[in-house]
Write a structure and sequence with these properties.
mainly alpha
């Protein structure tokens, strides 16, 4: 989902325009206050390597909230429903 959002934003805003948006998303992710059961990402989402735990922690609440306003509302709702489904079947 993270890669898809980046590709979508590049398609809509171009390679030069997407950097500011990705930086804003990154700032939102890095600024999340510590909370029990929620993994923090002080470096944002630009990891060299993703693990399953990283992705689950990022998607739990943080990423969906960070992309709001940058992608269409229907995309946010679809991601939310998809993630909810994934957690239910897991």
């Amino acid at each position: 989902l993270v890669d898809w959002v980046e590709k979508y934003l590049v398609h809509i805003h171009g390679k030069s325009g997407v950097k500011k948006i990705l930086d804003d998303i990154d700032k939102c992710i890095a600024a999340v206050a510590p909370f029990t059961g929620l993994q923090c990402f002080p470096q944002g989402w630009h990891f060299k390597q993703w693990t399953g735990d990283d992705l689950k922690g990022l998607m739990k609440v943080v990423y969906i909230t960070a992309i709001e306003g940058h992608v269409p509302r229907d995309v946010v709702h679809t991601f939310h429903a998809f993630l909810k489904f994934c957690y239910l079947v897991h």
